[in-house]
Amino acid sequence: MKNNLLLSLTLLIFSVPAFSQNVGIGTNNPQTKLQVAGAISSTPVSAPAQAAYVIPDNTSVFRLTGVAGTQGNALSMATPKEGQYLIIFNDDNDAATFGGFNLSAGATITLNYINGAWRLTGRSDAVGPTGATGATGSAGATGPQGNAGTAGASGADGKNAYTTTTTGYTQPVLGNNVSVSVVNTSWMTTGQAVFVGGSGGYYIVNSIANSTTVVLTYLGGGGTGTVGAAGSGVSASGQTGAQGATGAQGNVGATGPQGSAGPTGAQGTAGATGAQGPTGAQGNAGATGPQGSVGPTGAQGTAGATGAQGPTGAQGNAGATGPQGSAGPTGAQGTAGATGAQGPTGAQGNAGATGPQGNAGPQGPTGLLGAGTAIGNTTYWNGTDWVLNSSNIYNNGGNVGVGTASPGTKLDVTGAIRTNNQLISTVATGTAPVAVSSTTMAPNLNADRVDDRHLSEIQFQQSGRDFPNGTLIQSDIDYSVVNGDPW
Length: 487
Prior knowledge:
By secondary structure, the protein is mostly beta strands. Helix content is 0%, strand content 22%. Strand 11 (108-114) and strand 12 (117-123) form a beta hairpin.
């Protein structure tokens, strides 16, 4: 019974650093303390069978692999955590022990560590008690009577085989004896068949008491009460023919209907669940560091001075227009006259040259968070400082890993998972809510349909036949239960 059970993923419990609100992975609207839109996986730990082995702490799934020869397989865990769940597969041919529980070869157990001790929550090598056997059905009808055997041949005629009774007698019950007084018994022999008149009937000579008294065994054919009155004839009836052959056995009557199954025995009372340990107090959130001050803007550089206006030259005689001379210097700015009426807006002048860059302001103080050293590391507050390079949670931008730097699903966990509430899947019909590679049975798993059948539609069978009376009984399945362990 080599079963590798992994359906018990539904029992695993997941914990992350405490926050006051719900946490969602792959969803921005978590409805529980942890809601994951995607698969959850836990990496199993395995070790070969041996005399003794300490399972590493922070393990949720452990597999004991087979080794030739006889092994002790004494398993333990050094420092389990309160509320931790653990599944153990025994793939060795020898039994194993863990936490005071026996684990037969090829079997699986699930446990929970509560109040300082491991508690058994399920196992694959035990079955519940067998219900009472149903009442036996009514006997079938008796088959028809077989044909009568062939009659024996008539005996030879008697000779001097006649006498009469001297007194009447009381007819005995068929097959019983009676003493009869006659005139003469000399012709009679033990075992001889005789007929007695006077409603006597047929008899066999049982014994001859004396010459006038004979003991007869009644065969039938006579009356009741007082028969064989004095003077009734007693004659030989010929020897009894050979016993006719027994007629053929009549057909067996049809079997009566199957009796109703007896009621199933009452379910044993479930053991009390240990008290939930108190949740540790929420640590205070660390204060956000102050924002570094912005450095001051550098001073604007001073504009260069405008050159003086040159004087206007005297008007020369108009001569032939020579080549355009170079522009004379601009004269000095005259005294500003009174402000005239607002003239029309002139065309946009060219932008002035950008002044030189001011000096950089002083460097602000360093913030609380520095640069990490690995892609995907998630920062957390340890109560004193922000830890940048932890190895517990990784976020690669699409998947989140706990204990692994290469998550393959929305949430990929290496180690134990814990929760004190439901694991809820909202995947659409047509996609299995749990993906399992193991073929091992899941103990204590409540399910209404198996292979698209309700449990009420399933007929138990073994080796190609129905179980007797439609009921699974102890002799049909090998099983063993640890004394005192509830199933």
